Amino acid sequence: MIQSRLVELIARKKAGEISPPESVELNALLKDDEEAQLMLHKADLIWNALLEPGGTEVDYVDERWDKLSRRLQENSTKEIKMQPVSSRRLLRYSIAASVAAAVLTGAVILFNAGRSGMKPKQNIVSTKNGSRTKIELPDGSAVWLNTGSKLIYSDAFGEDLREVHLSGEAFFDVAKDAAHPFIIHANEIDIKVLGTAFNVRAYPDDKRTEATLIRGLIEVSFKDRPADRLYLKPNEKISVMNGEIRSQVRDDLPGAAIASSPGKSADEPVISFSRVTYQSPRDSTILETAWIKNRFVFRNKSFEELIKDMERWYNVCIECKNPELLLQHFTGSFYHESVAEALDILKLSYPFHYTIDKNQNSVVIQ
């Protein structure tokens, strides 16, 4: 209805028949409406293209009127009297209005056709190292983003699929909608859900991509291997080695450890399953989702991997010049500790020295 009224008002303006109240109405329709303004711009381009060089719409209509008059004279044996100037002007405006409406309607069709071919706008939500955030997607699903993470979804989210791309770590609490599956693309894996809560860790520079299910059911598939699908139940976790899944020949997928990568030890499976890890028998905190509660929890993690997490968590650059230290494994939990306090706690398990450069926001470990 609004678009039809817009066509009418612009046509009346082109014909010179628009009244002051209608001008106010037209300006109101055009104000802050980029689509309407673009439609008007396209209509002007098409309208101007119809005119002869140096001519005006009045010249165009006068020519149409003259042709019409000659045709009437040729087809009639009776004398035809020319209409008064006022009638001629009225017809001229009428023809101009008709042409303007037709041109504008064509512009609407072209504009809508152009929009249908446009790619949906991409929405990007990201967090820097040292910061975390929570967002709500258009379908009501809640997403917590951990440090140094990025979530991408388009304006077409929810039309057919609810589809997102994740780089980093996020906890999803997905709203139920059986008609529109929710799909997460994360490094080596794609995760399909209908309504559930789970954690995905997919940092590009990590060795592995992980998905941990807290509630519901999720389906996990693999890049370039769409026929292979696995299903996780609550409190189960899948871990996939980055950069290896594409090169593996399909194996029997169910099991605790699957398809070890060539040249790697048997304790480094490309795909593995495990149960969620609790911080301790007396603590119900789940290691994989502790970050949501602002707790930095880790278990039996090599120092090489640990300092990557610490860089993200504390927003600091850490350089370790002690190769033996990189191979050591640590278990612990930090909450409000600073990076210096965390390092002091870690070196109680394996002695090392460190210096902090506050100006460079960096740490050097010897």
Automatic annotation (TrEMBL):
Stretches that traverse the bilayer: 90-111
Organism in which the protein naturally occurs: Filimonas effusa
All residue ranges annotated as the FecR protein domain in the record: 125-218
Keywords, sorted A to Z: Membrane, Transmembrane, Transmembrane helix
InterPro entries in the cross-refs: FecR, FecR_C, Ferrdict_sens_TM
GO molecular function: sigma factor antagonist activity
Protein FecR C-terminal domain mapped to chain residues: 295-360
The protein, known as: FecR family protein
